[in-house]
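Throughout this chapter, every protein is written as a compact record of paired, labelled lines. An example of such a record is reproduced below:
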Amino acid sequence: MISIIGSGRVGSALAFLCASNTLDDIVLVNKTESEAIGEAMDISNAIPKNSSITISGTSDFSKIRNSEIVVITASSGTYLKSRTEMIGQQVKMLQEISSEVVKFAPNSKVVVVSNPLDVLTYVFLRESKFPKNKVLGVASSLDSSRFQLLLAEELKANQSEIKDAIVLGEHGDSMVPVFSRAMCKDTPVEDLLSEEQKKSITLKLIGYWKKLRDYKARSVFGIAKNTYDVLESISKDKQISIPASVLLEGQYGISDVCIGIPVKISKNGVDGINEIKLSDFELDSLKKSAKIVKEYL
């Protein structure tokens, strides 16, 4: 069973993907129970007719009992200028959720989606005392998808022709796009881009969510799909390698903080950390990003 805490836009989009792909039974938990029930009723009509999975909505945390996976998408409000502007409210909310997850789903793998992503992933680990391989935050894979798109646009290529475009570090203003590994049609993108172009792409990447908000309230489908890929990997034991926010213990010279780094994911949750080679500038930027996240803890 997959329990999704928060039945707002992201939570309901994720539930739709899980249901329409018959991933597993789903429980939507929301503070306002009627909203969770309504979303569950709607999504139930998208379950394939040959499937036996179910979806329900509730405000009762006991319904998440024995979940294999718990996803946290809940928010205490809407941030407008920075993902960290509601950090106090969000941490308090996360602490309350973590106590319920510990009580009812102590053996689950936990996927954090709520912002500030890296801070809340660390807070959940600290509060729950869960094994570090069972908790991860999903956002760097979304940033990587955006990086791939921006590279394709700048180089007038198809997205499929851009390979190994990954973003590490904070899901925020200090994120680190890894230009040194990205390829376009078998050519390193660093051979194709000037320093000015790289700076421009980085600024567009950091500001992508704000530009999106000029047109709609928030990102929904991108983060829902990236999160679904993680749930499918865990549920179906389909190993994938993506950047995700996990606890570092000396990797890249960084400790006691959660930030986005390359990891392997499988039925066990986080199956390992990939320490990839970075340029000196990228490694220094990653360490600075970790320091910024630590200041919020």
